[in-house]
Amino acid sequence: MSVTKRNEADVGYVEIDNPPVNAIGQSVRQGLLDAVRWAEELHLTRVILSGKGRAFAAGADAREFDSAPLEPHLPDVLNAIDESFVPWIAAIDGVALGGGAEIAMACRMRIMSPKSQIGMPEVTLGVIPGAGGTQRLPRLVGLAKALDMISLGKPLNAADALAAKLTHTVEDDPVEEAYMVNTEELGCIVPTWELPAPEHDKELLANARATIAKKSPNQIAPNRAIDVIEAGLSIPFHDALPIERAAFLELKTGEQARALRHIFFAERAAKMPETIKADPVALDHIAVVGGGTMGAGIAYALLNAGLRATILETDEDGVARAQTNVEKVIDASLKRGLISDARAQDHRARFNATTDYTTVGDAMLAIEAAFESMEVKKDVFAKLAMTLPKEAILATNTSYLDINELAATLPDPSRVIGLHFFAPAHIMKLLEIVRGDKTSDAAIATGFALGKALRKIPVLAGVCDGFIGNRILARYREAADTVFMDGSTPWEVDEAMEAFGYAMGPYEAQDLSGLDIAHANRRRQDATRDPNRRYIPIADRMVELGKLGRKTGAGWYRYPGGNGKVDDPIVADLAIEESHLAKRERTDYSGEQITERLVLAMINEAADILDEGIAHNARDIDLVTVFGYGFPRWRGGLMHHADTLSAKAIVARLRELSQEDAVAWKVSPLLERCAERGINLADAAPSK
Ligand code: 3H9
Predict the structure, then answer these.
(1) C-alpha separations of 526 from 9, 379, 469, 516, 675 in Å
(2) Any idea which residues carry the catalytic annotation?
(3) Could you tell me the pTM of the whole model?
(4) What's the 522 CA to ligand 1 centre distance in angstroms?
(5) Minimal-distance CA residue to ligand 1 atom 46
(6) 480-505 core/surface letters (b: 16 or more CB in 10 A; e: else)
């Protein structure tokens, strides 16, 4: 039973019971409609509607969005509630989101518990409210608030909902409070659909559109929501509903909504593979080696999860630096209101920075975030192996180095794992968990347990240069540099990728992280690089010129006065010079051509990563690209995007490009197989 109902005398109690979060599927809709008729037949004086468990209702069941809608439709169910002569009261204890909030708004009254939230996050799934939300919300909270809530999708907590008059009151026990409501008072409340729509305010609508143009320029749903809200301001409620419904249904089957749904469910499916049966080690005290920006970010994330963290440094200067770095993060979180003073004090009490390895003798996990050098890391691991309990897990945060080589230096290589955090480590959600050849299941289970404790998105990866994310990034940059040397400017490349949906193009992003890191990597790869692969020397020349990015005041761009980027003619000259030396004819690439090359280069590399079993499925690559590298979420991640292009079309285009450079554009065998069999990358199996 997805909806249960009972009455005590003339009061009805209806409860949505569809674990885990009371998503509103067909059986819930039918159950609610039956309850409306039941309450009317019994002539009840009120119905108190609640949700069983942790949610009132999390919204329409998004798993149903890929099929044709089944009756009864939610708008009809909610009209029945809103128009019933029996008044319904929403007793909200937990989240009331999307369709859940729409149910609550169709009730005569809303009572929320203090920990509850109410909101319309439909745009985050690429749709708009489709059960009257665009019409009922403005009637209840006014145009400004409704535009804000629907177009941005951010829910309100109970206190804010009270201030917005979206809830009548906030009470610890909403069901009990709903029972206490005076019957006469309840009878005087006007049904939501009968309330007048707010005034048509051009300025508010223009402001909302301007905000969306800035915050989510490429997304269709937020603008569509504003259009539908606007349409409803000047026509009767029941005339506006079909406009909303048509927009909802059209968006639901569109590419953006499919992509956003895909990433929503992919995020939730990011769990430890079922084949791993071992238990994690107990997480309490964790050693972090290195107190630079990355180490401090990791330590803060650990503290935030209630764990104890000790940063190990090589000398007293390092200890002081680590303390300052962690304090900076605590301070910034305090200033942003993310933690209270008491919580900050608690963080400090669980933090230590020292040179003394014996202080971490009880730590069951160590995360090394020291300098990116194999020798340094081997030395650190030897010390950790001597100090920590022998069952403790030893993790490295390396971005590129060979974890198998590192593990081989220890008597027990099974305790070694990669835990690749992304900077800033306390904010970025992605965690690559890298499994070496000998890594034990217990170590992997520990990585996933840590990911869960830190509320990260964990993705299992195999060992190769750059694992999943940085290997794709390297190919992305190589393709960008090639386009740059052969005809474009960093500005044009960045502009093209921003138009594709990245918040920042590859050159501006590299100026932020620094050109020296990639340079050191290229030197490390010199000995093993395929001599037939074209090498683009411009980035090396930049480093020779001391143009390392923002930290040196200039990189691919100049930043006069520390402000926004401006084009640097010297950089463009470098490309012209190098292409002249290499006797290459320069081409004037269009934005679309630039985007195509960079995106296809990434897809081809990612297909190899999947084929080699470095990533376990295409979905994991989507998570890595979206949550670690800024690939547009509304495109669903790199592999989901590839599937919208189709393997067949991709292979055909890669073959054309391979006429220019057979090495760089060598078609991935996995893509060839998908094209031949007419299957999606999402369904492809690795050959290894
Ligand atoms: C909508 O309502 C349209 C209407 O206006 C129009 C209708 C006509 N559907 O996140 P969690 C699953 S659009 C299906 O891990 P938490 C989720 O996949 C909808 N399933 O828990 C997971 O499954 P599994 C607007 C859903 O406590 C399990 O529930 N609503 C849905 O961290 C637990 O989820 C939204 O956008 C759903 N709508 O967070 C809200 N929601 O166990 C989307 C969840 O198999 N949901 N599941 O992995 C959320 O924001 C969070 O899930 C929530 C709980 C805050 C509710």
Answers:
(1) 82, 24, 21, 15, 34
(2) 60, 99, 102, 122
(3) 0.95
(4) 44
(5) 58
(6) bbbbbbbbbbbbbbbbbbbebbbeeb
